[in-house]
Description:
The chain is α+β, with helices and mostly antiparallel strands. The protein has helices at about 40-45, 70, 95-105, 130-145, 175, 180-195; strands at about 5, 15, 30-35, 50-60, 80-85, 110-115, 115, 125, 155-160, 165.
Amino acid sequence: MKGAASTLGPGRAVPAPAVDEAPSSRTSEVAVVAGGCFWGVQGVYQHVNGVTSAVSGYAGGDERTAQYEVVSGGGTRHAESVRIVFDPRVISYGRVLQIFFAVAHDPTELNRQGPDEGTQYRSTIFAANAEQARVARAYIQQLNDAKVFGAPVVTTIEEGRAFYRAEAYHQDFLERNPTYPYIAINDLPKVADLKRVFPNEYRAKAVLAGSVE
Length: 213
Protein backbone atom coordinates (compact mmCIF):
# COMPACT_ATOMS: atom_id res chain seq x y z
CA MET A 1 0.00 0.00 0.00
CA LYS A 2 1.52 3.26 -1.17
CA GLY A 3 0.55 6.90 -1.18
CA ALA A 4 1.10 8.46 2.21
CA ALA A 5 -0.96 11.50 1.34
CA SER A 6 -3.86 12.32 -0.95
CA THR A 7 -5.59 15.49 -2.05
CA LEU A 8 -9.17 16.67 -1.87
CA GLY A 9 -9.46 19.61 -4.18
CA PRO A 10 -6.62 22.02 -4.98
CA GLY A 11 -3.84 21.97 -2.41
CA ARG A 12 -5.71 19.97 0.20
CA ALA A 13 -3.54 17.16 1.57
CA VAL A 14 -5.19 14.23 3.35
CA PRO A 15 -2.43 12.33 5.15
CA ALA A 16 -2.56 8.63 5.78
CA PRO A 17 -3.60 7.77 9.34
CA ALA A 18 -0.75 7.75 11.82
CA VAL A 19 -2.60 5.10 13.82
CA ASP A 20 -3.89 1.94 12.14
CA GLU A 21 -4.85 -1.58 13.10
CA ALA A 22 -2.04 -4.00 13.78
CA PRO A 23 -1.34 -6.49 10.97
CA SER A 24 -3.07 -9.83 11.37
CA SER A 25 -3.67 -13.07 9.50
CA ARG A 26 -7.36 -12.34 8.98
CA THR A 27 -8.62 -12.51 5.42
CA SER A 28 -11.79 -10.50 5.93
CA GLU A 29 -12.93 -7.48 7.93
CA VAL A 30 -16.05 -5.31 7.87
CA ALA A 31 -16.25 -1.52 7.95
CA VAL A 32 -19.48 0.49 7.91
CA VAL A 33 -19.45 4.19 7.00
CA ALA A 34 -22.03 6.85 6.22
CA GLY A 35 -21.28 9.88 4.09
CA GLY A 36 -24.39 11.16 2.39
CA CYS A 37 -26.36 9.32 -0.27
CA PHE A 38 -25.20 5.72 -0.25
CA TRP A 39 -25.14 5.47 -4.06
CA GLY A 40 -21.88 7.38 -4.34
CA VAL A 41 -20.17 5.90 -1.29
CA GLN A 42 -20.97 2.39 -2.47
CA GLY A 43 -19.79 3.30 -5.96
CA VAL A 44 -16.41 4.47 -4.66
CA TYR A 45 -15.68 1.38 -2.60
CA GLN A 46 -16.78 -0.96 -5.37
CA HIS A 47 -13.69 0.27 -7.23
CA VAL A 48 -11.21 -0.23 -4.38
CA ASN A 49 -8.66 -3.04 -4.52
CA GLY A 50 -9.07 -5.42 -1.60
CA VAL A 51 -12.78 -4.71 -1.19
CA THR A 52 -14.79 -7.89 -1.74
CA SER A 53 -18.23 -6.42 -1.10
CA ALA A 54 -19.82 -2.98 -0.77
CA VAL A 55 -23.52 -2.91 0.05
CA SER A 56 -25.86 0.03 0.56
CA GLY A 57 -28.04 0.05 3.65
CA TYR A 58 -29.02 1.73 6.89
CA ALA A 59 -27.33 1.92 10.30
CA GLY A 60 -27.96 3.79 13.52
CA GLY A 61 -31.62 2.96 14.07
CA ASP A 62 -33.96 0.02 14.58
CA GLU A 63 -34.67 -2.81 12.17
CA ARG A 64 -38.34 -1.90 11.91
CA THR A 65 -37.52 1.53 10.48
CA ALA A 66 -34.78 0.38 8.08
CA GLN A 67 -36.81 1.22 4.98
CA TYR A 68 -36.01 3.96 2.51
CA GLU A 69 -39.40 5.65 2.66
CA VAL A 70 -39.16 5.85 6.46
CA VAL A 71 -35.45 6.71 6.73
CA SER A 72 -35.84 9.55 4.23
CA GLY A 73 -38.11 11.31 6.72
CA GLY A 74 -35.08 11.94 8.93
CA GLY A 75 -36.52 10.77 12.25
CA THR A 76 -35.29 7.18 12.47
CA ARG A 77 -31.71 7.75 13.72
CA HIS A 78 -30.59 5.76 10.68
CA ALA A 79 -27.99 7.06 8.26
CA GLU A 80 -27.68 5.91 4.66
CA SER A 81 -24.61 3.70 5.04
CA VAL A 82 -22.35 1.30 3.20
CA ARG A 83 -21.10 -2.01 4.57
CA ILE A 84 -17.62 -2.67 3.20
CA VAL A 85 -16.05 -6.11 3.40
CA PHE A 86 -12.33 -6.00 2.71
CA ASP A 87 -9.20 -8.11 2.90
CA PRO A 88 -6.90 -6.47 5.50
CA ARG A 89 -3.92 -8.17 3.86
CA VAL A 90 -4.56 -6.02 0.79
CA ILE A 91 -5.94 -2.79 2.25
CA SER A 92 -5.88 -1.68 5.86
CA TYR A 93 -8.77 -0.28 7.84
CA GLY A 94 -6.88 2.99 8.04
CA ARG A 95 -6.63 3.19 4.26
CA VAL A 96 -10.37 2.46 4.01
CA LEU A 97 -10.92 5.50 6.23
CA GLN A 98 -8.43 7.61 4.28
CA ILE A 99 -10.47 7.00 1.11
CA PHE A 100 -13.63 7.84 3.06
CA PHE A 101 -12.27 11.23 4.11
CA ALA A 102 -10.41 12.02 0.90
CA VAL A 103 -12.81 11.20 -1.91
CA ALA A 104 -16.03 9.54 -0.70
CA HIS A 105 -17.59 12.62 0.94
CA ASP A 106 -16.97 15.96 2.64
CA PRO A 107 -16.44 15.29 6.37
CA THR A 108 -16.96 18.95 7.33
CA GLU A 109 -20.65 19.05 6.36
CA LEU A 110 -22.97 18.52 9.31
CA ASN A 111 -26.10 16.45 8.68
CA ARG A 112 -25.88 16.95 4.93
CA GLN A 113 -23.89 16.13 1.83
CA GLY A 114 -24.16 18.30 -1.24
CA PRO A 115 -27.84 18.67 -2.16
CA ASP A 116 -29.05 16.22 0.52
CA GLU A 117 -29.97 17.43 4.00
CA GLY A 118 -30.94 15.64 7.19
CA THR A 119 -29.43 13.43 9.85
CA GLN A 120 -29.83 10.45 7.52
CA TYR A 121 -27.02 12.00 5.44
CA ARG A 122 -24.63 12.56 8.36
CA SER A 123 -20.95 11.67 8.31
CA THR A 124 -20.48 8.69 10.59
CA ILE A 125 -18.15 5.77 11.13
CA PHE A 126 -20.03 2.80 12.58
CA ALA A 127 -17.14 1.10 14.36
CA ALA A 128 -17.41 -2.68 14.57
CA ASN A 129 -15.31 -2.86 17.71
CA ALA A 130 -13.15 -0.87 20.09
CA GLU A 131 -10.08 -1.16 17.87
CA GLN A 132 -11.86 0.36 14.87
CA ALA A 133 -13.20 3.11 17.10
CA ARG A 134 -9.70 3.82 18.40
CA VAL A 135 -8.25 4.10 14.88
CA ALA A 136 -11.13 6.29 13.70
CA ARG A 137 -10.97 8.58 16.72
CA ALA A 138 -7.22 9.03 16.35
CA TYR A 139 -7.54 9.78 12.64
CA ILE A 140 -10.23 12.41 13.13
CA GLN A 141 -8.05 14.05 15.78
CA GLN A 142 -5.07 13.91 13.42
CA LEU A 143 -7.02 15.57 10.58
CA ASN A 144 -8.41 18.26 12.86
CA ASP A 145 -5.04 18.99 14.47
CA ALA A 146 -3.52 19.41 11.01
CA LYS A 147 -6.46 21.58 9.88
CA VAL A 148 -6.54 19.52 6.70
CA PHE A 149 -9.95 20.73 5.56
CA GLY A 150 -9.95 24.31 6.80
CA ALA A 151 -13.01 23.45 8.88
CA PRO A 152 -13.53 20.89 11.65
CA VAL A 153 -14.25 17.29 10.76
CA VAL A 154 -17.75 16.63 12.07
CA THR A 155 -17.71 12.86 11.50
CA THR A 156 -19.14 10.99 14.47
CA ILE A 157 -18.22 7.51 15.68
CA GLU A 158 -21.05 5.18 16.66
CA GLU A 159 -20.42 1.75 18.13
CA GLY A 160 -22.70 -1.24 18.50
CA ARG A 161 -25.07 -0.33 15.67
CA ALA A 162 -26.52 -2.98 13.39
CA PHE A 163 -26.46 -2.63 9.62
CA TYR A 164 -29.52 -3.38 7.50
CA ARG A 165 -29.27 -3.97 3.77
CA ALA A 166 -31.17 -1.47 1.61
CA GLU A 167 -33.73 -2.33 -1.01
CA ALA A 168 -32.54 -4.09 -4.18
CA TYR A 169 -33.14 -1.06 -6.40
CA HIS A 170 -30.55 0.92 -4.43
CA GLN A 171 -27.78 -1.64 -4.92
CA ASP A 172 -25.13 -0.97 -7.58
CA PHE A 173 -27.04 2.19 -8.49
CA LEU A 174 -24.00 4.07 -9.78
CA GLU A 175 -22.87 1.16 -11.93
CA ARG A 176 -26.33 0.58 -13.36
CA ASN A 177 -27.19 4.26 -13.90
CA PRO A 178 -24.03 6.17 -14.86
CA THR A 179 -26.00 8.74 -16.90
CA TYR A 180 -28.55 9.43 -14.16
CA PRO A 181 -28.17 13.20 -13.51
CA TYR A 182 -27.61 12.89 -9.74
CA ILE A 183 -24.93 10.24 -10.31
CA ALA A 184 -23.23 12.11 -13.14
CA ILE A 185 -23.06 15.37 -11.17
CA ASN A 186 -22.39 14.18 -7.63
CA ASP A 187 -20.91 10.69 -7.70
CA LEU A 188 -18.96 9.90 -10.85
CA PRO A 189 -16.47 12.65 -9.93
CA LYS A 190 -15.78 10.75 -6.69
CA VAL A 191 -14.84 7.61 -8.61
CA ALA A 192 -12.64 9.74 -10.89
CA ASP A 193 -10.98 11.24 -7.80
CA LEU A 194 -10.38 7.75 -6.42
CA LYS A 195 -8.56 6.80 -9.63
CA ARG A 196 -6.53 10.00 -9.60
CA VAL A 197 -5.70 10.22 -5.90
CA PHE A 198 -5.35 6.51 -5.08
CA PRO A 199 -4.04 4.93 -8.29
CA ASN A 200 -2.65 1.94 -6.39
CA GLU A 201 -5.99 1.24 -4.73
CA TYR A 202 -8.21 1.87 -7.76
CA ARG A 203 -9.56 -0.95 -9.91
CA ALA A 204 -11.58 -0.44 -13.06
CA LYS A 205 -13.93 -3.39 -12.64
CA ALA A 206 -16.44 -2.83 -9.85
CA VAL A 207 -17.35 -5.54 -7.37
CA LEU A 208 -21.13 -5.67 -7.53
CA ALA A 209 -23.53 -6.25 -4.65
CA GLY A 210 -26.25 -7.70 -6.84
CA SER A 211 -28.91 -9.59 -4.94
CA VAL A 212 -26.54 -11.48 -2.64
CA GLU A 213 -27.45 -11.11 1.03
